[in-house]
Amino acid sequence: MNKRINFEDSVFIILMRIKLVKDIIILDGDPEIFLEKLLDDIYFTDRCLGILLENIMANEKLISRDEYIGQLLDAERQFSGLLDNFLSHKGDISINENPAICNKLLSLQKSGEERQNTISIMKNGGKSETNIPVVSQDELNELLKDL
Question: What average pLDDT does the chain have?
Answer without folding.
Answer: 84
